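Can't attach files on this board, so I'm pasting raw text. These are the components:
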Amino acid sequence: MHGCLDCGKPLTKKKRDHLYKYDRGKPILLRGMTRLVCKCGYSEVEFPRIGPLHETIKQALSVLRVKREDLAFFFTPGDHGVQDGAWGVILRSSAA
Ligand SMILES: [Zn+2]
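---
Top answer:
Structure tokens for the assembled complex are below.
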């Protein structure tokens, strides 16, 4: 993990839901994303496997008959961590 791009200090990892601006429409909810935060105010979000994320979003929006606001996407690491992990989608109403 690299340091802060603004001041070079170490970054702290936090788990946060993230509203992802996927396209020009309303943002997509990504659950439990890792946000890297610095004391100076700088922060960034880690996106594991952004290609598969876009595929999963595209498929969900075209197949599921629900509004995107009702969906939440989440990443599950595989046996080898991020590299073989997969994105999934759930209905927000069914998410605890
Ligand atoms: Zn900083």
